[in-house]
Specification:
- By secondary structure, the protein is an alpha+beta fold.
- It contains two helices and four strands, in the order E-E-E-E-H-H.
- The strands form two sheets. A two-stranded antiparallel sheet has the order 1-2. A two-stranded antiparallel ribbon has the order 3-4.
- A hairpin with a 6-residue loop joins strand 1 and strand 2.
Length: 66
């Protein structure tokens, strides 16, 4: 099993995924959300936050900058 995969909802003890920018909650990994690895940890971003900050995400700026 890949260590970097988030838990899935059907697994016991699975957790919800929360947008690191606005706090939106999703059950399981939504296919349209994006994520960024910052300082060794994953940060998930919902559709709206990803669209609003796509240039910063593609430029690999840490989310603290946007």
């Amino acid at each position: 099993m890949d260590q970097h995969q988030p838990p899935r909802p059907e697994q016991p003890g699975a957790e919800s995924i929360v947008c690191s920018h606005c706090g939106a909650v999703a059950e399981g990994p939504p296919p349209t959300w994006t994520f960024s690895v910052e300082n060794g940890s994953r940060h998930y971003f919902c559709d709206d936050c990803a669209r609003a900050n796509i240039r910063a995400i593609e430029g690999r700026l840490d989310s603290d900058w946007w």
